Amino acid sequence: MISNRLSIEQAINKEETSLGIELGSTRIKVVLIDHSFQTIASGSYEWENQLKDGFWTYNLEDIIKGLQDAYREMKEEVTQNYGITLQTVGSIGFSAMMHGYMAFDEHNELLVPFRTWRNATTGAAAKALTDLFGFNIPERWSIAHLYQAILNEEEHVPQIRFITTLAGYIHWLLTGNQALGVGDASGMFPIDETSANFNASMIQQFDELVASKGYPWKTRDLLPKVYVAGEQAGILSEAGAKILDPSLHLQSGIPLSPPEGDAGTGMVATNSVRKRTGNVSVGTSVFAMIVLEKELSKVYPEIDMVTTPNGSPVGMVHANNCSSDLNAWLGLFREFYEAMGHKVDANKLYSVLLNKALEADPDAGGLLSYGYLSGENITGLEQGRPLFVRSPESKFNLSNFMRTHLYSAFGALKIGMDILTKEENLAIDSILGHGGLFKTPVVGQKMIAASMNVPVSVMSTAGEGGAWGMAILAAYMMNKNQEESLEDFLDQKVFKDVKGEEIHPEATDIKGFETFIERYKKGLAIEQSAVDNLV
């Protein structure tokens, strides 16, 4: 233990550490890793999006406060455990939830509040651009947000000088460099795989589409410079160091890796960047990423085409809603338990209730729920209303109730994944899961394995999440051999001794989920009626 501590102290003092920071939808997390890729300190900050003037957003003050609080917590842990006041690290990387819209003017002022991926307000723009490009443009993508603002004739559009994602914004704020990793960039505008850059012909098409408007900008000038994993994308400026660490201990000049999206860091954290591999990330939203070995036969509105952090094509199924409604129900059970005069252990509460789902009927007993707090693109809902429905014949008990909400959390995801596995006959060698739901062993894996009919593994590193994955990307930038690919770096160095717990889908669960998903599809009319009639 003493030798391990000395090794970590030496790594800190010799700047053999990497710092990963990820701004997720409910938590900002900071992770510091050593030269053996182990987490040596971490910090976090809980936050929530807000519905303001019809848009889901986070304000800039919360972004900076959360960043600083999470960094300070990590820094204090370093001091407490190793007696060192952290002044520098070997490398830094920023990550955040993908997509969305942050538009700035010539004075670097945000023109409209940050519009997150969660907004389902760009349907007309997304459809028009999909038709124009012959390439699926989801509603979440930055270019869809920009074009919808144009269609809506929003006053700010002529004033735009650059647009970026949340990760790109933080990176720019702390380095002065308008940069983006190719994975995050692929959620702004389509990427040309051969160049690992924005698709030039589609940029020209978009310029021609809006030429009559006479805007004082060209599309390419609005977009950040694209980098691939392993490249250096800037250094921490003096102003950036003061923002991240207001105590002024942190030194400037630290190299930064390309800022990435949470999808890319999830792929890294689960070693899922090789072709025919994939991962599923479970949180407020849920998405599956499958690295493709061949092009899809046609355009599917349910499938995003994005890339790994090193530019390989990925089929992404992204559902806007996942665990929020499940968490709300668990909160209700917690409130009941406390009202009965008992003290609640949150981990035990989750474990007991989630494990009840394993005792349920395979099809969840005829129950049905929709955890739609917001619109859901895969099922065509522009807004959401959390909903629980049963018939008089349903088997209404706690185990079926819990399985229903787990199935529902993955319902929209299954509809998208069925396109890849059943219509495109996509070969998937392995799926790795990560996210908070997997902290309870077995349950989440069994449900997802049943939904996809694919073995699902969870590694010991999965709980580290995207901030750890971002730290790994920062470490790759500093420590890779000259010709070492990201895949080889992960296989041979990061995950060499990491074991995963694999669960294969069971026939009864597969059949049960298929029965449930047919009920889920038929019941979408009920959800739409709730949207239409429940204000």
TrEMBL record:
UniProt-recorded Gene Ontology molecular function terms: D-xylulokinase activity
Annotated Carbohydrate kinase FGGY C-terminal domain residues: 279-478
Gene3D superfamilies the UniProt entry points to: 3.30.420.40
Gene name in the database record: xylB_2
Family per record: Belongs to the FGGY kinase family.
Record-given protein name: Xylulose kinase
All copies of domain Carbohydrate kinase FGGY N-terminal, residue ranges: 19-243
Pfam families per the UniProt record, alphabetical: FGGY_C, FGGY_N
Keywords in alphabetical order: Kinase, Transferase
EC number: 2.7.1.17
